[in-house]
């Protein structure tokens, strides 16, 4: 039954209107109570969505994780498993999550009303997203601390006469003989940049069982980061969308400036060659494929629910397929560009210290807050270059948080649609989320906070997001029906993608994601943390590892719990519960 000017019909009627140019459609999933929710905001410009995805997904992992993985796993040869992962998992899952949000105009939890048995996927993604938000913002706190410290001359991490320095600190590695057999960690165990990071910024304790006190400077920096996030997203996408034009594009300016500067350094060429020189034997290593696949999930921010939330603000006929392809290209080029900046600098450091590059290369916080600041300290006008670098890091991280927090808020705002239209209520909800996340993050700015940070980083996502991505393809490809979903996409885009989505969502992507998960389990290593000032890495005690696995399993357990709950409380047969015709509706008005 169809009426003009906005009547509601069953979604199967969408197939009756293949000429989408003559139909204006606003899809919305009704609640079980039957009350149609209010319409949410939409991106004002077509480019807004792409900019938002760039800002959210392209972040610190592109700067400190991809370059290290590339050099570690065969240089240029690593690009083969990387691009395979892009085409087999990255693009298909990115498109699936965005199209799901765009079609339903809902956040990650209610979007799965199209397949209620798998609504737990939305709950799992939301919990993972919350945990990632809590620890990711701590990095911004560290970055703000370094940014403020960069306005000093000389830079404080280049000196050995400060209260945090030890008796063995030396400020120039070229004056220190290179003893035989010294490892990377022992080579820099009294370096001022290392001592500044561990003894001044973190004031790190010996282990996770000695949490110690909150570091008030880091706590204030963390608070400032959350205040910035709140102010930028409290009024919704109309505000954050404008801010993202600055935060998503400015890092490229800083990156290009740093690339020009670092490429002129002595040893930069050797660093770039080391970064991209292929070692084809690495392709037979499962660790390489596991690293490539998990890097795609991290750099594309898959299985966190935020992409679905960002897609839900698109107009119904927005061409998100085009944006998906553009995003994949930009993301890859950004990772390669960041790698060139990092390894040109590492090549210079290796040249100065007269050591191989692998003795100065590092991943994660150690690269951003020890190795690179140390390199910046050797340049003329070092405070200027330090400000550029840490501004770039902050801009990369802050807009990732815009998308992360927006995805979390949108997931719950759908249950109370007034939040989308009432600015005061939305500000209260966003403020509450920021306060709770800040309180959780305070545990990571204590003396033992780095160990808690490592626990969150290692267990809150990693292999878990592979499982969520695999189940997403199963839910859409087999339970809801891939053919059915692609017809919805045809209605949205005005053109058909043919058999390609069905091939990927039903066969290639689930198989590839499952293989990645198996590889990640096979190459699993116990959690450890390498402190630059100690010869051996710190091994986490058994109780903390168990706590980490409890953290990881808490999100996954939501999937079977929700599934069985849905079966018990929903009347009808199993097929009816799995394939709910009655809750999906489309508003159709003729142009």
Automatic annotation (TrEMBL):
Localization per Swiss-Prot or TrEMBL: Membrane
Ligand binding (Na(+)): 55, 62, 299, 331, 396, 399-400
Transmembrane stretches, start-end: 47-66, 78-100, 121-148, 214-233, 245-264, 296-313, 325-346, 384-413, 425-444, 464-482, 503-524, 547-569
Main location: membrane
GO terms of biological process kind: amino acid transport; sodium ion transmembrane transport
Entry GO terms, CC: plasma membrane
UniProt key word Cytoplasm: no
Pfam family, one: SNF
Keyword Transmembrane: yes
Annotated keywords: Disulfide bond, Membrane, Metal-binding, Sodium, Symport, Transmembrane, Transmembrane helix, Transport
Residue pairs linked by disulfide bridges in the UniProt entry: 160-169
GO molecular-function term, one example from the UniProt record: metal ion binding
Coiled-coil region(s): none
Membrane-protein topology: Multi-pass membrane protein
Family affiliation: Belongs to the sodium:neurotransmitter symporter (SNF) (TC 2.A.22) family.
Identification of the protein by name: Transporter
Upper lineage: Eukaryota, Metazoa, Spiralia, Lophotrochozoa, Platyhelminthes
């Amino acid at each position: 039954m169809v009426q003009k000017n906005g009547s509601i019909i069953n979604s199967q009627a969408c197939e009756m209107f293949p000429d989408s140019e003559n139909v204006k459609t606003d899809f919305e999933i009704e609640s079980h109570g039957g009350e149609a929710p209010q319409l949410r905001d939409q991106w004002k410009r077509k480019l807004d969505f792409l900019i938002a995805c760039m800002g959210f997904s392209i972040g610190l992992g592109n700067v400190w994780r991809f370059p290290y993985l590339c050099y570690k796993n065969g240089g240029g040869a690593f690009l083969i498993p990387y691009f395979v992962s892009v085409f087999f998992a990255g693009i298909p899952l990115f498109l699936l999550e965005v199209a799901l949000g765009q079609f339903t105009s809902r956040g990650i939890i209610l979007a799965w009303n199209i397949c209620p048995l798998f609504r737990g996927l939305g709950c799992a993604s939301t919990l993972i997203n919350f945990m990632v938000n809590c620890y990711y913002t701590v990095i911004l706190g560290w970055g703000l601390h370094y940014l403020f410290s960069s306005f000093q001359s000389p830079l404080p991490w280049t000196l050995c006469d400060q209260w945090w320095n030890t008796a063995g600190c030396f400020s120039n590695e070229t004056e220190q003989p290179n003893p035989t057999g010294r490892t990377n960690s022992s080579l820099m165990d009294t370096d001022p940049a290392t001592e500044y990071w561990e003894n001044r910024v973190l004031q790190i304790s010996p282990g996770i069982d000695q949490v110690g006190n909150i570091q008030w400077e880091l706590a204030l920096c963390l608070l400032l980061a959350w205040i910035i996030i709140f102010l930028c997203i409290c009024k919704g996408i109309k505000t954050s969308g404008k801010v993202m034009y600055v935060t998503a594009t400015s890092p490229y300016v800083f990156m290009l400036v740093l690339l020009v500067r670092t490429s002129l350094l002595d040893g930069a060429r050797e660093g770039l060659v080391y970064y991209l020189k292929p070692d084809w034997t690495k392709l037979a290593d499962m660790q390489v494929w596991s690293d490539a696949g998990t890097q795609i999930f991290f750099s594309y921010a898959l299985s966190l629910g935020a992409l679905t939330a960002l897609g839900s603000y698109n107009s119904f006929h927005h061409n998100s397929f085009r944006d998906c392809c553009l995003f994949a290209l930009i993301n890859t080029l950004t990772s390669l560009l960041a790698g060139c900046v990092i390894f040109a600098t590492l090549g210079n450091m290796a040249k100065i210290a007269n050591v191989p590059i692998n003795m100065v290369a590092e991943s994660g916080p150690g690269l951003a807050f020890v190795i690179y600041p140390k390199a910046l300290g050797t340049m003329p006008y070092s405070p200027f270059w330090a400000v550029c670098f840490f501004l770039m890091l902050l801009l990369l991280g802050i807009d990732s948080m815009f998308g992360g927090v927006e995805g979390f808020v949108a997931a719950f705002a759908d249950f109370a649609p007034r939040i989308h239209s009432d600015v005061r209520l939305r500000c209260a909800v966003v403020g509450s989320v920021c306060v709770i996340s800040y309180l959780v993050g305070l545990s990571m700015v204590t003396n033992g906070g780095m160990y808690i940070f490592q626990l969150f980083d290692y267990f809150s996502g990693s292999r878990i997001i592979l499982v969520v991505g695999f189940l997403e393809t199963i839910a859409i490809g087999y339970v809801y029906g891939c053919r059915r979903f692609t017809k919805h996409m045809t209605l949205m885009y005005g053109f058909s993608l043919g058999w390609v989505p069905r091939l990927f969502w039903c066969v290639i992507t689930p198989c590839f994601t499952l293989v990645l998960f198996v590889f990640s389990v096979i190459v699993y290593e116990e959690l450890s943390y390498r402190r630059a000032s100690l010869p051996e890495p710190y091994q986490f005690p058994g109780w903390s590892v168990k706590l980490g696995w409890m953290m990881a399993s808490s999100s996954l357990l939501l999937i079977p719990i929700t599934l069985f709950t849905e079966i018990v409380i929903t009347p009808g047969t199993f097929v009816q519960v799995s394939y709910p015709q009655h809750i999906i509706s489309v508003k159709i008005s003729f142009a």
